[in-house]
Amino acid sequence: MKQPCPSNKCESANDESARDKSVKCKSANDEPARDKSVKCKSANDEPARDKSVKCKSANDEPARDKSAKYKSVGKKYAVCLILSIFFHISFFNVHCPAMETTDNLHGGMAWDAYNAGEYARAENLFMVLLEKEPHSMNLVTGLGYSLYKQGKYEQLHGIIQGDRIRNTPEIIELKKNFYSGWLNHLGTQGKPEKAWDLAMLLSDSGGGPEMDAAENYYADTGRMRAASWLFTNRKTRDTPCYLNAWSPEYGLLLHHDIRDGDRGTSFLRDRSAVAYYRESLSFDREWSFSLKRRDISTGDGTVSDENDMDASYSAATGSAYRRLNPGNGSLSGTLHGDETVYEGWLTFNKEGPMPVEISLGTSPIGGKLDGTPTFNVWVRRGKLDLEIHRQTVEDSMLSLSGLKDPHGEKVWGGVVKNGFTIRGSLSMGDAWLSLTGGYDAYRGVNVWQNSSVNLNGALGKNFKTSHGSDVILGVYLTGLHFENNSNFFTFGHGGYYSPGVMMVAGPIFRYKSPPCREYRLDIQASMGWMFEKTEDSPRYPIHYEIVDDFTRDALQELQGFYPGKRTESLTGSVKLEGWKMLSRKLSAGIFANFDSGSDYMRWSLGLGVEYALKPRTGFWQTER
Predict the structure, then answer these.
(1) In whole numbers, what is the pLDDT of the chain averaged over residues?
(2) Helix (H), strand (E) at residue 569
């Protein structure tokens, strides 16, 4: 009697013919037998294409079915078939090797097409096979990678989210590679809205490789609070350095700043203390509040008839022309002394495809002038940043909080600049190009109106050290132009640097310590050759007197000009910031800064402490 050749049955454990190691015995409830000769895989690599080895490395995915194996199985099957035809004796029991016949052979052909880079052909073969074996995750995996390689992301998304998909190790690996690749593709194609929408969709998936991909996307794009939020609600893998980045935190910063200059006018000493609190409102929103106390001084703060002016009028302050007019020669008071002023800021931050940061505050309150509202609005769209602001000009006490005229009763100063800044960047691998431009209108109390434009360009390259640190080398060119020269302290001027033309160019350097460490170090330095030219400026751009009865000397002083100048010099800037974790919740920092990028030099030294309510494992870094 003719013995049939079963192709999908497993013989008993004692039957030699059932021990063929190329075939896996599966129960009636399992999916069709698949090739499992290689199990090497990684989160990021695709199937290994080297057909000469079964597994390229621990970082490669499975090396798929090899045609040689199917040829061997096919030969065994052919021999078995011939024996079954010629031997019909019932006691001669012939057993054929189990195999998936045509489908398995075609599966090998599909994988061979994929490994050869013929992704469209591989897609067609896998689709045909899946019509016969719709529950084969091996075939779904092959189809998935074929679509992924062709950039058919939405089609692949629809397939791997189907009801029949089971999260086998191969499918989990496919999903992880696919979603990470899709998010990266949307980002590089300038589609941040679609990338964010996809990440939000994956964030609501309930876990698995989808949420892993969303968390990695948030971390890679600097959205540490969102990444931390996802991790905190799962805790399914090794602790990342952004653990509890969403946690509320308190901080205190102490600064001591000194700007050089002459006594009583341009010199400025500023001791400040800033206390702040920061808290997350939700997955993608955060708010913070800060209060700043400033003790500011300009030296001894005395002015008298004998020494308030020298022959070149370099120390003239207020309406000094009055002392030359009969009846107005006496001082009504001192120029100024030490002052304590306060500033408050409320900041709201929202992450997303267009991250936004809005800060509302005040200029210094408690000085000679009342405070005025200030604000800063920053938004990013792709590689373009836009900032709209109303900010205090902090070059001197006059521009910061105002001064009282020692020759009269009026006050003047308290300068704010109202304007915008646009910044665009372009990346070319590790190289980058940055262009920035802006405009500001300067306003104050009893102060000459002014405006400025600025342009800045920088070109550089990023380097990664063997320890994971970032090193940035580049060159920059900066240009600045003011409509009026208001860098003086007579009545009507603002006491801030305002050249007609300023240009500086030179090299830049930056070092950033590796992320995810218990310390953080950021060092920035630049040098440059500076050219500046200032225009002639009226000594008193604003005055209120009727000058008919002024003496010749008073009129000459009132109508005089400060001469402009032209200089070239070497300039430089160094900025250092370092933090160290003292415990899982407490960190301490130090700051230092030196800048000679204008007609004065400024030094700054500071200390800081920060306390988080939830324990953390390290510092993370963001681009802004």
Answers:
(1) 79
(2) strand 565-581
Query: What is the C-alpha separation between 550 and 23, in angstroms, rounded?
Result: 112
What CA–CA distance (Å, rounded) separates 529 from 315?
29
**Residues 497 and 455: beta-carbon distance below 8 Å:** no
Q: Identify the pLDDT of residue 236.
A: 52
What would you report as the CA-atom Rg of the chain, rounded to the nearest whole angstrom? 37
Three-state DSSP class for 346? strand
Kindly write down the DSSP assignment for every residue of 46-84, as one continuous string.
-B---TTSS-S-TTSB-----HHHHHHHHHHHHHHHHHH
Residues 6+ apart with CB under 8 A from 550: 321, 325, 558
The rounded distance, in Å, linking the Cα atoms of 397 and 518 is 39
Contact between 554 and 545 (Cβ < 8 Å): no
- Taking the C-alpha atoms of residue 416 and residue 398, their distance in angstroms, rounded to an integer, is 11
Please name the helix (run of DSSP H) or strand (run of DSSP E) that holds residue 281, with its range, or none: strand 268-282
Query: 609 pairs with which residues across the strands?
Result: 252, 588
Give the pLDDT confidence score for residue 25 in this predicted structure: 37
Q: How many CB atoms lie within 10 A of CB 54?
A: 14
Positive or negative, the CA dihedral 461, 465, 471, 475 is: negative
3-state secondary structure of 291: strand
Cα distance between residue 245 and residue 259, in whole Å:
36
Most confident among 10-24, 141-155, 228-242, 256-270 (mean pLDDT): 141-155
What are the backbone dihedrals phi and psi of residue 465, each rounded to the nearest 5 degrees, phi first?
Answer: -80, 170
Beta-carbon contacts of residue 96 (< 8 Å; ≥ 6 apart): 5, 6, 7, 17, 76, 77, 80, 81, 84
Residue with tokens 């950033």: 512
Q: Collapsing DSSP states into helix, strand and coil, what is residue 402?
A: coil
Residue 142 has pLDDT above 50, yes or no: yes
- The per-residue b/e assignment along 528-540, b for 16 or more CB within 10 angstroms, e otherwise, is bebebbbbebbbb
pLDDT tens string 231-244: 765 555 567 878 88
3-state DSSP assignment of residue 361? strand
Query: Which residues, 6+ apart, have CB-to-CB distance to 301 below 8 Å?
Result: 264, 334, 335, 336, 337, 338
Q: At what angle do helices 169-188 and 137-149 cross, to 10 degrees?
A: 20
Q: What is the pLDDT of residue 329?
A: 56
Backbone angles phi, psi at 415, to 5 degrees: -85, 135
Interhelix angle 137-149/101-115, nearest 10 degrees:
30
* Residue of 470, 596, 434, 480 whose CA lies nearest to 527: 596
Question: Quick one: pLDDT at residue 576?
Answer: 96
Which string of DSSP letters, residue by residue, matches 192-236? Answer: HHHHHHHHHHHHTS-SHHHHHHHHHHHHHTT-HHHHHHHHHTT--
Q: Is the dihedral of CA 130, 135, 138, 141 positive or negative?
A: positive
The better pLDDT of the pair 450, 190 is held by 450
| 611 vs 79: CA distance, rounded Å | 77
The distance from CA 49 to its chain's CA centroid, rounded to whole angstroms, is 36
Predicted TM-score of the model (pTM): 0.72
Q: What's the pLDDT score for residue 300?
A: 52
Residue 246 CA to residue 227 CA, distance in Å, equals 9
